């Protein structure tokens, strides 16, 4: 994480500069709470996300194959790093029943130094190449 915040290391809030290790937030949904909890558990356990939040049920309205749909879904929010996104997306697709699961990435322009470092450390194992790959 490149510190671009005036004040340097003593500043508790830092700006992110677009590095691969920068924290991002990923939004998704699941068709029910049980599956949402399973997806969250697996993604944290595999270090693809540092934190997964299972939110409240919502009703999503959308057009699918020309038909208006109104579906109960459970919100999912993931905290991860930019370099974990390809592996996270692939794994989410493996775990998800939808043909096209929601996968929306939000940039995090700034945050507390401690939290951003924690997210980077929590996902490091998923993005580091295996010892034989280096």
General description of the model:
The protein has 134 residues and is an alpha+beta fold. Helices cover 29% and strands 35% of the residues. Strand 3 (51-64) and strand 4 form a beta hairpin. It is elongated. The chain starts with 12 loop residues before the first strand and ends in a 7-residue tail after the last helix. The model is unreliable at 1-5 (pLDDT under 50).
Number of helices: 3
- Name the shape in a single word: elongated
Give me the secondary-structure category: alpha+beta
The multimeric state of the shown protein is: single chain
How would you briefly describe this protein structure?
It contains three helices and six strands. By secondary structure, it is an alpha+beta fold.
Q: What is the strand and helix layout of this fold?
A:
Blueprint: E1 13-15, E2 23-30, H1 33-45, E3 51-64, E4 67-81, H2 85-95, E5 104-107, E6 110-112, H3 113-127
Antiparallel strand pairs: 1-6, 2-4, 2-5, 3-4
Keywords:
single chain; 134 residues; alpha+beta; 4-stranded antiparallel sheet; two-stranded antiparallel ribbon; 3 helices; 6 strands; 29% helix; elongated
């Amino acid at each position: 994480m490149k510190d671009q915040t005036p004040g340097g290391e003593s500043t508790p809030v830092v700006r992110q500069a677009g590095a691969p290790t920068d924290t991002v937030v990923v939004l998704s949904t699941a068709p029910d709470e049980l599956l949402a909890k399973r997806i969250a558990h697996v993604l944290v356990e595999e270090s693809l996300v540092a934190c997964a939040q299972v939110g409240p049920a919502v009703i999503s309205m959308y057009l699918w194959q020309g038909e208006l749909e109104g579906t109960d879904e459970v919100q999912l929010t993931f905290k991860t790093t930019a370099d974990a996104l390809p592996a996270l997306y692939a794994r989410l697709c493996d775990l998800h029943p939808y043909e096209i699961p929601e996968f929306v990435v939000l940039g995090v322009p700034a945050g507390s130094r401690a939290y951003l470092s924690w997210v980077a450390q929590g996902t490091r194992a998923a993005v580091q190449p295996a010892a034989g790959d280096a």
